[in-house]
Design brief:
The protein is α+β, with helices and mostly antiparallel strands. It has one domain: Peptide Deformylase (Alpha-Beta Complex), CATH 3.90.45. A hairpin with a 5-residue loop joins strand 6 and strand 7. The chain is globular.
Length: 184
């Protein structure tokens, strides 16, 4: 089922999220719905707050990039209760966008790799280093769980330049090719 996307200005995107317990209702169905919603919107990552849920869950699908990045073939993962333990000193600046901030793309500096822990969709624990583009997407989605957006990482000048666009978005004046949630 395609879930509505919550956009910039909606409170759920600025809340810190709660950990998921093993008895969370319909978790597998939610994960499948999030993958379906993300694909329909042409995204590579989607966090629970983006579909209105203040829980520590996000999904990433990099399989669509396999033609240019063969290492991402079959890369479809659900991350439950993720934590970033350590970040590399090496950083890079790459342009990012977000399904919850449609039409806005900005350059963001992030560590090239991160040491993380998480539970997979079967509630099995993982402890690993993630690098490259996967690390960037992981950090972007992780920010959502902390109540942050990628635009929080840009300069004050860049924020001023997109202020009108963000204000219009927060008032519901936005065109999206995917289903969105209106109101706060």
């Amino acid at each position: 089922m395609i879930l509505p996307m919550y956009l910039f200005g909606q409170q759920v995107l600025r809340k810190e999220t709660e950990e998921i317990t093993t008895d969370y209702p319909n978790l597998q169905e939610l994960i499948q719905n999030m993958f379906e919603t993300m694909k329909k919107a042409d995204g590579v990552g989607l966090a629970a707050p983006q579909v209105g849920l203040s829980i520590r869950l996000f999904v990433i699908d990099l399989d669509a990039l396999k033609e240019d990045y063969p290492e991402y073939e079959g890369f479809l993962h659900a991350y439950i209760n993720p934590q970033i333990l350590e970040e590399s000193d090496d950083t890079e600046v790459i342009e990012e966008g977000c399904l919850s901030v449609p039409g806005v793309h900005e350059s963001v500096r992030r560590p090239k790799s991160v040491h993380v822990t998480f539970l997979d969709e079967n509630m099995q624990p993982h402890d690993e280093w993630i690098d490259g583009f996967a690390a960037r997407v992981f950090q972007h989605e992780y920010d959502h769980l902390e109540g942050k957006l990628f635009i929080d990482h840009i300069s004050s000048l860049r924020k001023q330049l997109i202020k009108k666009k963000l204000l219009a978005m927060s008032k519901g004046n936005v065109n999206c090719s995917y289903k969105i949630k209106h109101g706060s």
